[in-house]
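From the pipeline queue, job 12 of 40. The input is one protein chain; the requested action is below.

Action: predict structure.
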Amino acid sequence: MIRISAGSAACMGLSTNRMDAYPTTAYFLSGNSCLMNCAFCPQGSGKNQTLNRLGRVNWPEFSWAEAEKGLQQAEGKGIRRVCLQSVRHPDGIYSLTGLIKQIKGMTSLPLSISAWIDDQEEAEALIESGADRISISLDVVNPEIHHQIKGGSLNERLDLLLNCANRLPGKMSTHLICGLGESEKEVLFLIDQLVKAKVTTALFAFVPLKGTSLENVSPPPVDSYRRIQAGRFLLNEKLADLKSFKFEKGRLVSFGIPGSRLEQYLSTGSAFQTSGCPDCNRPFYNERPGGIIYNYHRALDNHDKGAALKVLFDSIKK
């Protein structure tokens, strides 16, 4: 049996659920008990675990035969990648290598994996098994808060990520969650370091989930998130240098770019779309339909672009 996100299952023909938006990646989830105890996650050990929940998403369980049939139907119908996400297993990554081979035997789609890795050799083993990208999730970018929320050392995980990126260039990704007490300066300085190491960054807005230790903490202000999204886009596309960014008490106040040029750079709206691996759009992972959209799962229309840019430009110095 394997857990598949509700949106992916609908797109794969495995359920009749009507969705507001469909994913372009089929998201799979492996494991029923996580050794980690991340304060933001309902999968964490020590909590009243809700095994069919990760983020805001339901993950119903299906047989492997159903998953294979669904993937065959989904190819060419909007699904362009498979993402295998895994809790931290007691036996490390070794059960995952078998799962990767099993999935790759079902589909020709590229496969990303997000899992706990202990060393570079484990990362190489996942690639050799058939994954084309690996995410080592940093999540919390302030070292002290990272230790409080996730446990362990941010610097140690970052060192591992950078060492893996050196040995597996272009194949490493990470997740960064905004709204957990970090400053905008900390996020963008880390993104700049990761961009230079050719590590793909996926931005998430913190989501308070019932049953977790952080269920009463608010999501990040949308203007702060827009500044970080725009900064990430400019750094990633080599349209700006971090040295030109100006901060006041950790808050980004200027990109150091004339307003007309900045508006031109951001005019497509792609800075505000879901970031991460190719073809990953994660519909409504951070938001409810009808509410604030932190990560747009599709190209922005003129109304959405205007709204996002207004929030951004109203909050910075030109």
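Job complete. The two ends are 53 Å apart (CA to CA).
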